[in-house]
Design goal:
Layout lengths: L8 H13 L3 H14 L4 H14 L2 H11 L1
Helix pairs in contact: 1-2, 1-3, 2-3, 3-4
Length: 70
């Protein structure tokens, strides 16, 4: 789907969430960072970035992302 609609925020959000659930933290963080880059005002994007950082053990980064989600 990303090949058909690159930069689609909904697809990126689902991909970041799915990779986090699978424990693929680095891939999840990279996807969530791209999502935040294209939708910087979207709280869901920042929340997903925070959750992705948690999977990687990046708790300080997660707190920062959660704060930006507020």
């Amino acid at each position: 789907a990303l090949f058909v609609r690159p930069g689609d925020a909904a697809i990126l959000l689902e991909l970041a969430s799915a990779t986090a659930e699978l424990g693929l933290g680095e891939q999840s963080v990279a996807t969530a960072e791209e999502l935040v880059r294209i939708t910087p005002g979207d709280a869901r994007a920042h929340r997903q970035l925070a959750e992705s950082h948690v999977v990687c053990g990046g708790h300080d980064q997660a707190v920062e992302a959660y704060e930006r989600a507020l």
